Amino acid sequence: MYATYPDLDNASVFITGGGSGIGAALTEGFLRQGAKVAFVQRSDAAPFCDEMEQKYGRRPLFLPCDITDMAALKAALDQAAEAHGPITVLVNNAANDKRHKTEEVDEAFWDWSVAINLKAYFFACQHVVAGMRAAGGGSIVNFSSISYMMGNAGYPVYTTANSGINGMTRSLAREFGPENIRVNAIAPGWVLTQKQKDMWVTPEGLAAHIDRQCLKVELQPDDMVDPVLFLASRTSKAMTGQALVVDGGVVVTG
Ligand SMILES: NC(=O)C1=CN([C@@H]2O[C@H](COP(=O)(O)OP(=O)(O)OC[C@H]3O[C@@H](n4cnc5c(N)ncnc54)[C@H](O)[C@@H]3O)[C@@H](O)[C@H]2O)C=CC1
Ligand SMILES: O=C(O)C(=O)C[C@H](O)C(=O)CO
């Protein structure tokens, strides 16, 4: 059963990384609302778009793009706005949580990780603001993570970026609030995408994590959809500058 957000019908929505993992669930969630969805990712998404078109009679606009290339990202945002009208919902979702140790990080790795996990977020926000202003407002949803709140080791550049996303979200909310442009973050807990299962989940690690959740369930990509739709829609019209934690109630201790 899914909620309906009437103002998302026909909305021009742009999602980074919208063809797999949580992003694919978001693309489907927005299509279900009748939105016009454009998304970027590096890998091919044609089969996913075929499936979405069959299910919803509306094909998402897939724009192949590496978001570490800011010119390409901005060009994709422009192409989406040309096809669907000014982007009024931006979801910065694409990220990479590749594991690493502090002592192994060189400047090239730092630059690559920050480019995906923070820089692309900032410049996507910057680039959509003019269109949102012209449209009378908009909503930006930035994916962060509880990883830094938990003080997780194993991916320090990623956690640094996630913490930065929340700081950036608060500052941009202040800057663009007077123009009715809302900026919120969402901080998921451990969401069992296929990639997480293939790369990082172990039975022991998952059991220990669920032990820390109040809700004893494995979070799925679909669990992120309604919180994002809520932040994107006018349902949350009095909310900005916030980080919505959707993690099954992880008990964060020092
Ligand atoms: N899955 C989880 O447990 C958690 C995820 N998150 C956040 O949720 C968001 C989505 O995560 P997942 O779905 O798990 O990730 P994922 O790795 O399954 O999917 C990420 C998407 O971003 C795209 N992408 C990655 N690098 C790109 C690049 N350079 N250029 C263009 N596209 C690129 C990928 O193609 C993919 O579509 C991320 O922001 C992540 O930090 C936060 C906490 C936990
Ligand atoms: O951002 C992430 O990726 C996560 O936060 C994943 C899980 O929360 C995790 O790594 C749990 O230990």
From TrEMBL:
Q: Which UniProt keywords apply?
A: Oxidoreductase
What Gene3D superfamilies is this protein classified in? NAD(P)-binding Rossmann-like Domain
Which SMART domains does the UniProt entry name for this protein?
PKS_KR
Under InterPro entries, the record lists: KR_dom (IPR057326), NAD(P)-bd_dom_sf (IPR036291), SDR_fam (IPR002347)
Q: Which Pfam families match?
A: adh_short_C2
Q: What domain of life?
A: Bacteria
- GO MF, one annotated term: 2-dehydro-3-deoxy-D-gluconate 5-dehydrogenase activity
**What SUPFAM superfamilies does the record tag this protein with?**
NAD(P)-binding Rossmann-fold domains
EC number(s) on file:
1.1.1.127
Q: Which residues form the Ketoreductase domain?
A: 11-190
Q: Does the keyword Oxidoreductase apply?
A: yes
Which family does the UniProt entry place this protein in? Belongs to the short-chain dehydrogenases/reductases (SDR) family.
This chain's protein is named: 2-dehydro-3-deoxy-D-gluconate 5-dehydrogenase
Could you tell me which species this protein originates from? Roseibium aggregatum
**Source organism lineage?**
Bacteria, Pseudomonadati, Pseudomonadota, Alphaproteobacteria, Hyphomicrobiales
